[in-house]
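User: Can you recover a sequence for this backbone? Please restate the input before giving your answer.

Assistant: Of course. Working from this structure:
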């Protein structure tokens, strides 16, 4: 019972670590299950710091999954997006946490190799020291420092400035949805940044754009086309996913697709549309996330 209680206490943190390393809630849950089975074989009384120990176990299991998933990602049909997770409003209060699970950041993390991703996530998001990370990834501390420096430079060169979900961003999404429903091209364009991008993930199982749509004109036309062909019969609900404002499209009461909005300086800079039914199956669950102080 002591082992189960300790694991349950730290579960939100462990899920957050696994999800940020894997970009998949399903894989993160698998990692937690495997980690729990290993934890049950350990005497908690003999572990000096249960939380740090559990994060090490989860990190190692997530690294194994990342390496195994590489070939699956290379064979993926169309654009790949991380599995969206429904987040509670309070996630937006922690800007570092909200940014770290945002679609844009998760896509940047996909460009790192598994060890770089683990090191960056543990150090820059969760605050682990290089020595603690070295124990988790099985590398020398000096090597971890080099990896951290390289990964941070890579991420900072590609990251987009993040603006978490708020009342203001929610109003922008409302105006966007209303303009799309009205077929108002100019109103849509006024809400879009010049370099706005749409990325759609159908996983090869449903209709979705297989390449990103870039630029205000093309995105506005794309959105109006989608609305004319499929959105007019859907019920639309506001929501929060990955710390971002989002819209859920339900057809016949079932979630058909969802869109998360990236907003900066009052303009929409990114729309991330998820249609892959395998990823939508788990999209109704609100995931408790935790970036808790580690030490």
């Amino acid at each position: 019972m002591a082992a189960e209680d300790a694991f349950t206490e730290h579960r939100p943190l462990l899920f957050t670590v696994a999800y940020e390393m894997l970009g998949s809630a399903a894989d993160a849950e698998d990692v937690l299950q495997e980690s729990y089975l290993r934890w049950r074989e350990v005497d908690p009384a003999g572990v000096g710091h249960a939380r740090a120990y559990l994060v090490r176990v989860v990190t190692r299991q997530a690294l194994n999954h990342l390496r195994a998933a590489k070939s699956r990602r290379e064979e993926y049909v169309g654009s790949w997006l991380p599995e969206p997770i429904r987040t509670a409003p309070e996630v937006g209060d922690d800007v570092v946490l909200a940014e770290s699970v945002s679609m844009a950041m998760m896509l940047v993390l996909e460009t790192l190799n598994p060890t770089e991703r683990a090191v960056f996530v543990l150090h820059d998001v969760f605050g682990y020291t290089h020595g603690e990370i070295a124990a988790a990834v099985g590398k020398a501390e000096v090597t971890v420092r080099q990896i951290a420096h390289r990964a941070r430079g890579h991420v900072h060169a590609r990251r987009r400035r993040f603006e978490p979900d708020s009342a203001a961003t929610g109003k922008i999404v409302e105006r966007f949805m209303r303009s799309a429903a009205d077929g108002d091209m100019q109103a849509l364009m006024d809400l879009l940044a010049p370099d706005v991008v749409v990325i759609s993930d159908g996983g090869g199982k449903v209709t979705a754009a297989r390449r990103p749509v870039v630029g205000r004109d093309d995105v506005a036309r794309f959105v109006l086309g989608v609305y004319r062909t499929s959105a007019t019969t859907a019920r639309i609900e506001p929501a929060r996913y990955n710390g971002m404002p989002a819209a859920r499209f339900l057809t016949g009461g079932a979630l058909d697709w969802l869109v998360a909005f990236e907003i900066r300086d009052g303009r929409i800079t990114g729309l991330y549309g998820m249609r892959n039914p395998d990823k939508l199956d788990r999209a109704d669950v609100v995931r408790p996330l935790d970036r808790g102080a580690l030490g």
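That completes the design. The chain has a mean pLDDT of 91.
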